[in-house]
Amino acid sequence: MALALAGAAGVRKSDTNPCPFDEDMLEYYRDLLAQYDVPYEEQRLYRGPNVSYTELADALLAALGHEITAPDVVLLTYAVPDLHPLRVVSAYVNERLGGGAYSMALSEQGLRSPYTALQVADAFHRSGRCDTALLLVLEQTSLPYHDPLVHDTPLTETAAALVLRSAPGPVAGPPWTGTPAELAAVLDATDPDTVVVAGPWVEAGAAPRMVRSATGTYCTSVWLTLAEKPDLWRDNTSGILLCDVDPRTGRAHAVRLDPAPTPGEAPR
Q1: Domains present along the chain, CATH in parentheses
Q2: From the CB of residue 15, how many other CB atoms can be counted at a distance below 10 Å?
Q3: Which one of 65, 117, 146, 253 is separated from 188 by 20 to 30 angstroms, measured CA to CA?
Q4: Do 169 and 191 form a contact (C-beta atoms < 8 A)?
């Protein structure tokens, strides 16, 4: 038995909200950034979209609908900090789905965070504590300072959710990490029936069934593509390989997912 991909949803936000902070919160940001000699740019909050991770999570739950009701594990991942630094969005999502799940957030790993989250979900599954996991990958761009990756790329407000359910079949193995050259060799040797979803920073290597994520995303890249293109995996029997290269670290990351059998379908 292994956790397999049973559902997905993607969200792109183009609307904007007013800056939500009072003077106390703005002072918090000023004091925080001053400790690290980072220039404080308050006007970025007034000009930015100001879409919080709570708002993105709500949009994902609405898009998933009845595909997810009472997960055993909720894993929230991101690379760019939330607009609201003091909110615990993973616990909020857990509460919205009944409050019975193990919930946690994984960050400070760049775009590796969702890959690590899949490893965490697999550990819960192998321990017998997880038959259904919900993975959320969130990205927002409103920050009170200039971040070259966020603002010069530029990134946009995006989010993806994956529903993973226990299904018959072999465990796909833990996420892989290596150099871009090593990833290129992996892609060149990929089985021709395997669907490859490659992030925007994968520059070398090719596979017969490769789909590339568009620019404008970082942590959400391949997960959003997977969610927006269900035809890639719904009837796929050879699995999906997701991969990207983190422009901040230069490290390549990859993981294999298998789609869950549809009701009545024989195990794969």
Answers
A1: 2-15+45-167 (3.40.47.10), 176-257 (no CATH)
A2: 9
A3: 117
A4: no
Q: What is the pLDDT along the chain (268 residues), one digit of tens a residue?
A: 789 999 999 999 999 999 999 999 999 999 999 999 999 999 999 999 999 999 999 999 999 998 898 999 999 999 999 999 889 999 999 999 999 999 999 999 999 999 999 999 999 999 999 999 999 999 999 999 999 999 999 999 999 999 999 988 766 678 999 999 999 999 999 988 899 999 999 988 888 889 999 999 999 999 999 999 999 888 777 789 999 999 999 999 999 999 988 655 555 4
Name the residue with tokens 């003091």: 86
Residue type, 149: L
Q: Give the whole-angstrom CA distance, residue 191 versus residue 193.
A: 5
Q: What residues contact 22, with CB distance under 8 A and at least 6 apart? A: none
User: What amino acid is encoded at 213 in this protein?
Assistant: S
DSSP 104-166: EEE-SSGGGHHHHHHHHHHHHHHTT--SEEEEEEEE----SS--IIIIITT--EEEEEEEEEE
- Indicate the pTM of the whole model: 0.94
* Burial (Cβ within 10 Å: 0-12, 13-18, ≥19) of residue 99: exposed
CB 199 within 8 A of CB 46: no
